[in-house]
Amino acid sequence: MAIVKSKIIEHLSDNYPNFLNKDISKLVEIILSQIEVALVKKERVELRDLFTLETRIQKKRLSRNPKTNAAVEVPEKNTIHFKMSKKWFKNLNDD
Fold first, then answer.
1. Are 53 and 75 a contacting pair, CB within 8 Å?
2. Quick one: which H or E segment has residue 71?
3. What is the pTM of this model?
4. What are the angstrom distances between the C-alpha of 9 and each of 37, 47, 51?
5. How much helix, strand and coil, in percent to the nearest 5, is found in the chain?
6. Can you tell me the distance from the alpha carbon of 78 to that of 82, in angstroms, rounded to the nearest whole number?
7. Is-contact 44 52, C-beta < 8 A?
8. Tens digits of per-residue pLDDT, 21-79?
9. How far is Cα 19 from Cα 12, in angstroms, rounded to an integer?
């Protein structure tokens, strides 16, 4: 199940009816933009007891086009590495 920003805002507004919808929307926007800014600066983002995000460099490599089987050189690029906390992992896997 994928979750989108509008669903997060809807869920938060249902759980916190005292807050205005526009305030919740602004809060979510600020949090997500600050995570983006930190990742662009190659900083690590850590939400305790939830997850960490960090950028890693994926080295250049030789790959193949599956349609034509031709060799394609993929350049070096930055990727985002996600790691969930042990607490979250345990909660997810306990039945």
1. no
2. strand 71-74
3. 0.78
4. 21, 19, 20
5. 40, 30, 30
6. 13
7. yes
8. 999 999 999 999 999 999 999 999 999 989 999 999 999 999 999 999 999 999 999 99
9. 9
